[in-house]
Amino acid sequence: MGMARTLPLVLEGVTFARDGQTLLGPIDLTLGEAGRTVLVGPNGAGKSLLLRLCHGLLAPSRGRIVCGELGTPLQAAVRRRQALVFQQPVMLRRSVLANVRYALQRQGVRRRDSRQQAQVALERVGLGALAGRSARVLSGGEQQRLALARAWVLRPEVLFLDEPTSALDPATTQAVEHAIRQFDEHGTRIVMVTHNLGQARRLADECLFLAGGRLVERGPAARVLTRPASPEAARFLAAEQGIEPVVGPPSSTAKGVAS
Amino acid sequence: MMEAFASAFGLMLAGDAELLGIVGLSLRVSLSAVFFASLLALPVGAAVALFRFPGRGAVVVLLNALMGLPPVVAGLIVYLLLSRVGPLGELGLLFTPSAMVIVQSLLIFPIVAALTRQIVSDLWEEYRDQLISLGAGRLRAIPTLLWDGRYRLITALLAGFGRAVAEVGAVLIVGGNIAGVTRVMTTAIALETNKGNLSLALALGTILMTLTLLVNGLAYGLGEFSRRRYGG
Questions:
Q1: B2-230 adopts what CATH topology?
Q2: What is the pTM of this model?
Q3: Which tens digit of pLDDT belongs to each residue from B191-223?
Q4: Chain B residues within 8 A of A92 when measuring between CB atoms
Q5: DSSP H helical segments within chain A, as ranges?
Q6: Mind telling me how many Å the CA of B153 is from chain A's nearest CA?
Q7: A58 touching B (Cβ < 8 Å)
Q8: A256 confidence band (pLDDT: 50, 70, 90)
């Protein structure tokens, strides 16, 4: 019998505060079982905080996060079915291959089996030839692809990505986006933070717009990124394009279920 | 003075049996002490770095303070424990190399534990989110962090070895400086200097200084290797 799925991921009145100051929320949000959701918004909007809360790296100050149809609390067992690729992934002080094997061994894969699986994952992201090199001397783009390989071997149900291409050149960005699409094709739910609106348009089915720690708009990416309903999103997009903000018809809500 | 130096180098070049015996015992005692102290100090230092518990701050302060534990005080404590009327007197360890290993372990433990705590704490700061994301909690992170901090930890072990091998007061109290049994380089230097046998004292001093230089050179080399290979 297979394990129960950990999706949908449901946030109920989630708030995160530090030193008495509310940084995020309250947020009610349901991330459904499939698709590619992109979180967009200005700096300090709480996008990365939201990812960390969804992945269980931070605990909500108020509210709760539950997973799957059974409403399981977000805990280590659920987190093992997710993966998070950081903006600046941390590489262990080991070889490229050992970094991927480490992820596999944390999932209980035997050492003998982990070598082959890790090598296959590295080939997939074009790092097969660098398997023996120290991971920490790779370029930024190579490290990001290694982080994706490390996530790939986990076969995650959900892949969170926190600005994975923010410091990469266009060619490397394209390679990373290709890898993200491969995750999607294999049924992994994608939730990604990006400041690159072109990338959001290329990758997203759905867009969440955050500002000031609040989820101010959500809807199909094609609509939110062209005719936003909220003044905050309209101002943000206009600033990016260097034009006057235009607010579209209020056809969406900031609550509800994403497919 | 020049005669003493010439005689000292003569002893070293000739491989004098007494000299080699003293050097050999010094290395055996100090390396054993580093080994036994590290068995406990590495996990303790890592645990103090990673876990929050009541009194943790006091433990950190104590470990840091004990890095400067006066050797004669450590010697006195172990002497009282191992003396015939002490709680461990029946073991009959006083004035044996084992007693010297024990007292040197006591001196090394806080050095290795405190440095391990700092090294692991720094690494945890860097690795925390990534390791938790990959499914390693604090307990499972301990071997990971010890392995990834291995080059810096070896430097900590070398610091402990340097402290042990150069120490005189503690081993003199619990070892007794018995010729051929518990006489190590430092106690021999003190004795031979008092006796006016400067050639043996100088030969031992030269070897001790060379060892100290080697240990520091090794620590520097490992640090450089780690920086080049792993970026720190």
A1: MetI-like fold (1.10.3720)
A2: 0.84
A3: 999 998 888 888 888 888 888 888 888 888 888
A4: 127, 144, 148
A5: 47-55, 76-79, 96-106, 111-124, 140-152, 170-185, 197-203, 221-224, 231-241
A6: 14
A7: no
A8: very low
